[in-house]
């Protein structure tokens, strides 16, 4: 790996030398920039504390103070410092930039900045640029009926709430992909830096192509403390920290201190170097002058926690300690001394100098904000729906598997999908990404490599295949990174798909939570434009991780997803390749959802022609007439949802036809899981009458489900016929064994399904016991065969639909 | 931070210089060690491929090959290499050591080592030390009815399955805590190293006290490839990798190559240096000679993936490429050339030299294994129940909150618990750890700092409080690390508690899955002894994250937990401090469970005296007579589960008594959530008759629940009276607001509960509409007041039980 070229020159500037670099700010610039920062800090403190008297034009009285003091001060001045300085760079260089507050609990900062830039008042008219507007701005913060305390979706310019820490770098890289002109400034909290996702997030630089992607500027904000503890990275020596960041592939610049004037000069000088270095890296890559990965510049900003806030309160250190984390001075309504200290603190920012008589930011300060879309609070990249372009989707019908007769031909569903995805990628060379944790080929989507490579900025050997500096696929063995990259990509107005082993998608349960909450909240914000859905393709699923065993077997992500608001959640379990194609096309066209698609990768029987598949997926569920012999009045209904359960149900139907030819059996297959729910609970919910038409009001229903059986009960418990629902699914029994042994272990196998019918259809009389015994014997024989031969029985392996 | 002392001397050995260090192995030692390694590799390949002919005493025929070839070869020779060399250290130094295979898919290696050490045959008699035993060993691997393909609980010496990657360092540090004589050798896969949890797991050294804890020896196994891709750490320059590991606080030694003889010498020489360095660090700390954190040695082992396996198969590179990941040569039953190549491969290990006529390892090789408990496969630390000592628990009754009259006094439940935990820690100074992601004080357990500190090996400032090199509390802003530390601690036979914000415990959903699966599996393994339960205390819960808002509001971990096997899962929602004490005592005495306890930290009304609390918790649920006026025949039943829902139910009861004094209301409080379930579904499940006695067979039940309401439906859908259950809970509505506004947003508030009663008790007649309107008006008034004043109404804030 070469260290030559421009970045080497930069790398040779020792960290400490930056302290003595030129002082790029003239006296007037320095004063103005400091005033802007003071204004932002003032607005932040005002939001935390004030109900009224927003410019302190009267002495501060108890009734001006909010009764509940909520918000986080500690990180706020640092965020304001970064934003204010980045504004200077944007103005000077006309660079498109967005800001991500890793410590998103610093909501007062990002709200203040959006207000100072005028964006807030444009989008929220009652928060105008005057005293009344200031009062409203302050009052609404963390107030009932107002806005949240964090960098929530309600905050213009925010696409990263930071409420749950750890994802800022993954989001930042995702936002930068395919945005060659964009710089994503990502403030990393030093507490946040202890999280696993953030610790691996630094490696995002191994996937960022300086030629075709934008830049990420990490600013590690070492303010030294978390809620109640110091942070690790603030308490290791500078050389150790420098080694760590260098080892992550960065060129770190240290900006450290607490004297505002000196720090302004240092930050400005450093940013000048940093943006020169970014420009040089990009120029080298874009002119073909360099193809090696170069270390990207980053900043280590070491400032006191709660900088410019009260040094001590009640004799205890606050500034520069963890006590600055939330509200530094409490009980300001009832404690006069505290209120006086608050007033002194607020006045230390000299609000009279900052705002004019009407309460508007002084015009000369207003000029420090960038204009129009260059304002970070108004960047269209931070309201990605504004930039969203529809995908150019190939006609999925052309990728259909031929199905002359159901359940007699075999295909690998995800492999079929891979061919379509290949052409999705080919047609959308800058607007779609496929991410996966080293599982894209394992999940049999490798057709995509016919038209693209995997993005890879680390070393490439001649023996490597399908790796390149620029590729549309990202493979990193971190589900957190996959999810974070994709979220950042989607929220900036693009499209994508995350393919993952089903069991391990739980690794991002909490990230999913946050994204679903984000989508749900943005649905209620008029100025937020819809973004593309987050699409999960879960393969290598619970029933076919028979080779890896118990640790790889878990279908519970569906349950987790179903806890979130119905308006943003969709779950599909297509039973074969053609239905998978239809579902995938639908998902990639959709907006503002999380779509979970579960599909197998192993050779499996195909059930529906493409025409049937489209009709079936359009309804979301339906009776499979070809598999039913009920003439509209079944003795028993089989429900099935998922590829393996559907296969077992059909094989069970076959057994029933052999052994009980007069039994009237109906088969209902479910693709769109939420159709099962009540229409009042989910927009896809099936009206009651239709549900009863399918599942009957009173006949036994044996439901074979892909996941944990109780989810079906949960979705159907309001249904009239619910008491007759008997659900089979995964009961948390698993190991390394054969596919059919897996279904037997969980009583989802065809033989057991027949036993379930026998147990629930009273009319069978004496035939019941015999057939039940026959099935029990078949199970024992199947198990014995498997333990002897290590394979499923020929009957099972070779079964096809014989009718 | 000083770099002086012994580790500096070591650090001054340049990485490359190790290559030219002495060759510590004599000719005979080298030959024996290589033979042992060959034996292990032979056994690994045999497990993957062979059904029969285990020592190749006949030519290899199709029927000797397993019909399904399952297992992972790529990592296996490297794991065997490490284990074999560590054995030499154990023998030479008599050091207690355990082995954690981060790439736990290398099951063939750890099984092989346990077999070579004799442990396997001791524990699994049918796998003896002869030809029949070898046949059984080979056949059972990844075979129906046999053992899993990974380092699963079935493998002696394993406490880390590694099926889901990323946790090996956290587990290793957890195992090393308070085990001063133990060395935990932790092999980190280079794919695994890309995961977030592993990337932060390196920082475990900031919490390990060399004086009182053991040592962790990370071995980063750079074999270069994942399933289908190169790994990041294998594709950055050595200087960048060295910087990264140095920045993580380690002193890395590189062992790189592919020539076995040279690599044996290099590894042996390096291990000698490494163990000298570990000894020096420990000696310095234990003699008081050094108090500064020193870099711990670690090894970077760079070997080809699938080392010693086939170089190419069908003309494509296998050894040294990702194609070595699973089964390098496929279709060996049907493809004669493949089978011949397999036979050549197997014979390359020269099995005839390794095993005697009877199939037993040659005696001189057997001597290379350590003896007795020093065998890593037989270490009691890897079967922690063997070492488990009961906690010395203070009598929780002595920490009781006085409750003269229910719901009139206030206490912070977790603060009360904190006092008890303080004394638990004091009485168990080497056997109990409290972990938390920087939330222990926030969760109001800070009484513990009266008797201990937070473990902290990074720099300590004079201004710091409660930090020390040795402390019983570990705070790191990584739920993954907290969970991993605790799992490692528990699985080696100790006790602990993880306190966490409720919403963010989802971060470890997938780790919880793996631990629950581990516990469940070990229940079925006769030689595994029970370990202490994994205890979660979830506080700062959904109803009282009103200040952080929506991102911090999620009660779904309970749902996630409920998907796992009932035999290992317990969920408790104590409504007040005394019930929390009783529950916590119960949990800390229990074995082999995951206990989830949800409890609030805010001042809240106290309901039960300690005597009542013990009785109530013993039953798990019950009628609160003092809150009921039903005389055995209620018109309506209130169920409540969780502190906030219980408060709202009691306030609703109060409203009903005021407005409908003749309405007969029963209150049933639930502490042990699983009591709601059917006794066939969960060992704690309530028998049907008892359930009907509590909830009636036919009366309306308004159930106020802490979490997502559908869980209550899921748990009770088989109950006779289920159709009359109407559940209120968290409906995924949240923001930054007041506590009462939060319950109103989700229709869980007292006024809405009264409306729910009104809607469901038909006998109310004309009074219903008026009361309903009255309650609706009260809601509107409460909301208006809150939006005006930023506070809940005085009625709500000041409410106490008036009867």
3D architecture notes:
The structure is a homodimer of 803-residue chains. In chain A, α18 links the parallel β15 (569-572) and β16. The relative contact order of chain A is 0.09. Chain A is elongated. With 803 residues, chain A is an alpha/beta fold. Helices cover 36% and strands 13% of the residues of chain A. Residues 1-20 of chain A have low confidence and may be disordered. Chain A starts with 5 loop residues before the first helix and ends in a 5-residue tail after the last helix. Chain A has a six-stranded parallel beta sheet, with helices on both faces. A five-stranded parallel beta sheet of chain A has the order 1-2-3-5-4, sandwiched between helices. Chain A has 26 helices and 22 strands. Chain A has three domains: 3-370, Rossmann fold (3-Layer(aba) Sandwich), CATH 3.40.50.970; 397-605, Rossmann fold (3-Layer(aba) Sandwich), CATH 3.40.50; 622-797, Rossmann fold (3-Layer(aba) Sandwich), CATH 3.40.50. At the A-B interface, α8, α9, α15, α16 and α22 of A face α8, α9, α15, α16 and α22 of B. Chains A, B: InterPro entries: Phosphoketolase, THDP-binding, Transketo_C/PFOR_II, Xul5P/Fru6P_PKetolase, Xul5P/Fru6P_PKetolase_C, Xul5P/Fru6P_PKetolase_CS, Xul5P/Fru6P_PKetolase_N, Xul5P/Fru6P_PKetolase_ThDP_BS. Chains A, B: It is an enzyme of class 4 (lyase).
């Amino acid at each position: 790996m070469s260290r030559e070229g421009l970045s080497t020159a930069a790398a040779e500037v020792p960290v400490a030398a930056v302290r003595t670099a030129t002082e790029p700010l003239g006296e007037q610039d320095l004063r103005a920039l400091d005033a802007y920062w003071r204004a932002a800090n003032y607005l932040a403190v005002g939001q935390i504390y004030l109900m009224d008297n927003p410019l302190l034009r009267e002495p501060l009285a108890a009734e001006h103070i909010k009764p509940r003091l909520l918000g986080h001060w500690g990180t706020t001045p640092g965020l304001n410092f970064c934003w204010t300085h980045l504004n200077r760079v944007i103005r000077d260089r006309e660079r498109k930039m967005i800001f991500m507050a890793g410590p998103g609990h610093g909501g007062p900062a990002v709200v203040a900045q959006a207000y100072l830039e005028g964006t807030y008042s444009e989008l929220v008219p009652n928060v105008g640029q005057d005293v009344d507007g200031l009062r409203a701005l302050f009052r609404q913060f963390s107030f009932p009926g107002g806005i949240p305390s964090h960098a929530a979706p309600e905050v213009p310019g925010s696409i990263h709430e930071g409420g749950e820490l750890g994802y800022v770098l993954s989001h930042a890289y995702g936002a930068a992909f395919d945005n060659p002109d964009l710089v994503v400034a990502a403030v990393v909290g030093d507490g946040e830096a202890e999280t696993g996702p953030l610790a691996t997030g630094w490696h995002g630089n191994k996937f960022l192509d300086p030629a075709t992607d934008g830049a990420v500027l990490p600013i590690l904000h070492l303010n030294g403390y978390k809620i109640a503890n110091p942070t690790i990275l603030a308490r290791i020596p500078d050389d150790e920290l420098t080694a760590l960041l260098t080892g992550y592939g960065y060129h770190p610049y240290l900006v450290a201190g607490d004297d505002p004037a000196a720090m302004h000069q240092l930050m400005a000088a450093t940013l000048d170097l940093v943006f020169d270095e970014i420009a040089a890296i990009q120029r080298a890559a874009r002119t073909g002058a360099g193809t090696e990965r170069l270390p990207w510049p980053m900043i280590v900003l070491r400032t006191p926690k709660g900088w410019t806030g009260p040094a001590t309160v009640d004799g205890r250190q606050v500034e520069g300690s963890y006590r600055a984390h939330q509200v530094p001075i409490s009980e300001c309504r009832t404690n006069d001394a505290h209120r006086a200290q608050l007033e002194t603190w607020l006045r230390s920012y000299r609000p009279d100098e900052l705002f004019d008589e009407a309460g508007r930011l002084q015009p000369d300060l207003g000029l420090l904000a960038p204009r129009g879309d260059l304002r970070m609070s108004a960047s269209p990249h931070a309201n990605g729906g504004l930039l969203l372009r529809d995908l150019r989707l190939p006609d999925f019908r052309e990728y259909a598997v031929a199905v002359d007769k159901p359940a007699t031909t075999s295909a690998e569903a995800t492999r079929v999908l891979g061919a379509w995805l290949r052409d999705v990628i080919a047609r959308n060379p800058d607007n779609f990404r496929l991410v996966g944790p080293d599982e894209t080929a394992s999940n049999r989507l490798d057709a995509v490599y016919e038209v693209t490579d995997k993005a890879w900025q680390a070393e490439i050997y001649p023996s490597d295949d399908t790796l390149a500096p620029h590729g549309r696929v990202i493979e990193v063995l971190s589900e957190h990174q996959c999810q974070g990259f994709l979220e950042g990509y989607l929220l900036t107005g693009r499209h994508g798909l995350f393919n993952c082993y089903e069991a391990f998608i739980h690794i991002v349960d909490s990230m999913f939570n946050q994204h679903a909450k984000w989508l749900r909240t943005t649905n209620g914000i008029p100025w937020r434009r819809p973004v593309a859905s987050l699409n999960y393709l879960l393969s290598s699923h619970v029933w076919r991780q028979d080779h890896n065993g118990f640790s790889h077997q878990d279908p519970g992500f569906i349950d987790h997803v179903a806890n979130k608001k119905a308006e943003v959640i969709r779950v599909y379990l297509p039973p074969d390749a053609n239905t998978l194609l239809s579902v995938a096309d639908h998902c990639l066209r959709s907006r503002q959802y999380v779509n979970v698609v579960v599909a197998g990768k192993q050779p499996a029987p195909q059930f529906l022609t493409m025409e049937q598949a489209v009709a079936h997926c359009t309804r979301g569920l339906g009776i499979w007439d070809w598999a039913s012999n009920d003439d509209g009045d079944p003795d028993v209904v089989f429900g099935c949802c998922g590829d393996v359960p559907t296969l077992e149900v059909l094989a069970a139907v076959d057994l029933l036809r052999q052994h009980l030819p007069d039994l009237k059996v109906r088969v209902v297959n479910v693709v769109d899981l939420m159709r099962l729910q009540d229409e009042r609970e989910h927009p896809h919910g099936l009206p009651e009458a239709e549900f009863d038409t399918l599942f009957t009001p009173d006949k036994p229903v044996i439901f074979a489900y892909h996941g944990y059986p109780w989810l079906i009960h949960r979705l159907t418990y309001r249904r009239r016929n619910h008491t007759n629902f008997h659900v089979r699914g995964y009961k948390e029994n698993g190991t390394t064994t054969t596919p059919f042994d897996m279904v037997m272990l969980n009583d989802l196998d065809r033989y057991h399904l027949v036993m379930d019918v026998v147990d629930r259809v009273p009319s069978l009389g004496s035939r019941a016991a015999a057939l039940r015994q026959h099935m029990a014997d078949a199970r024992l024989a199947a198990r014995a065969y498997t333990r002897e031969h290590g394979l499923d029985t020929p009957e099972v392996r070779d079964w096809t639909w014989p009718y």
